[in-house]
Amino acid sequence: MFVVLRKGCTPEERNNVVRAVEAAGLSVHMSEGHHRIVISVLGDEDRLRDVALDSFAGVENVLPLRRPYRLAARESRSGDTVVRVGNHSIGGGQLTIIAGPCAVESEDLMLAAAKAARDAGAHMLRGGAFKPRTSPYNFQGLGESGLLMLRNCSQEVGLPIVTEAMDTRHVDLVARFADMIQIGTRNMQNFPLLEAAAETGKPILLKRGRAATVTEWLCAAEYILNAGNGRVVLCERGLVSYDSAVRNHLDLSCVPLVRQLSHLPILVDPSHGTGRRSLVPAMARAAVAAGAHGIMLEMHPNPEHALSDAGQALHLDELEAVISDAQAIHTLLQKSQVPVS
Ligand code: PEP
Ligand code: MN
Q1: Looking at ligand 1, which atom is closest to the CA of residue 187?
Q2: Which domains does the chain possess?
């Protein structure tokens, strides 16, 4: 449940609420906004059955929660979360563009992609050094040397990087090089990995599981938040479907829904979401129109020869038009009188 305190309530009144909750064996998480304080109550709420929190002095409202996540719920905060990555902010007013190859393949290719990303207006670079591949015989990524290449390119072009950690054994290594840690679709419910990534204190890009419900996804975010790391960004990347016409089925209806349910920023990855280069520009535009806080795009200097996800990578010279369309739609949307969520 959430206990919403009255504007101007005294510290004494606030402490009385916290003490009552803690005395019942539960814990609290406090969110102080400009207009009000919200106390999220964490633990077995049954134990508060006989505590009339709504009649405590200073309490405006007690909101029951019928959802299995709390800290990720919109009600737990008084505004939207903005996640700072390097000098860039994800969420809030601006549209975030992340671009780069599926995998780091060599320093030369990565640098060519990084320069094109910067020149086209991207804010962050991407590239996997640890690649989750369906077949063990496919390119698995360069590991630590890939991370080093990524870091060098990031310094060269001045953009922060996001890259995937697949395994608790590699989380600290990835955290040493990355500005943001990606949790991939296959690991969305790898709870020890979520907690280990959270403990690095780095911002986390949490992709939606390929067959995960929105509730399961927000519960996965809850693991990170509950481990004390509030810097979570969600990323929709398509769901498995019965229709093999596209690689994945990009669920854009989840964008306004997640914005209603949660205060966390949400990005969309139309590259994995379609699996086809020719479909990426349209779905990137649609994602922004649906209210995404940003898009993540795969691109490659020579897509036909990419070692992974060749069919969905944009050519470097296609990137600029996709980004400028996305920015134009975002600007238009900001003038709209109709709220996104
Ligand atoms: C990726 O971003 O390269 C990736 C593997 O994504 P996903 O986990 O969404 O498949
Ligand atoms: Mn990929």
Answers
A1: 8
A2: 2-66 (3.30.70.1140), 83-335 (3.20.20.70)
